[in-house]
Amino acid sequence: MAKPESEKAPPKKKGEPKPKLTDAERHKRFVDMAREVEADESTEAFDKAFEKAVTPHPHTEGDC
């Protein structure tokens, strides 16, 4: 059920827009995040993860 008009949150005020990142800053943030999540650049790791995602699993009785 919808809230009455008096209980609705006030509209959010727009603040100052964030400054655009430079390519160097964007790259640094990307690399830092990749390190944080322990990303792997090897094709073997990608292939293994991809196979897990796309390989159909056999259905058992009662599935679907």
Overview of the structural elements:
The protein has 64 residues and is an all-alpha fold. The protein contains 2 helices and no strands. The protein is flat, with a radius of gyration of 23 Å. The two termini are 33 Å apart. The mean pLDDT is 82.
The major sheet is characterized as: none
Beta percentage is: under 5%
Number of strands: 0
Gross morphology: flat
Kindly report how far apart the N and C termini lie: 33 Å
Unreliable sequence segments: none
Quickly count the helices: 2
Structural class: mainly alpha
- Following the backbone from N to C, one meets helices and strands in this order, namely HH
The average pLDDT is 82
Rg to the nearest angstrom? Answer: 23 Å
List the helices and strands and how they pair.
Blueprint: H1 23-36, H2 43-54
Task: Offer a few descriptive terms.
mainly alpha; 64 residues; single chain
Short description:
The chain is mainly alpha-helical and 64 residues long. It has helices at 23-36, 43-54.
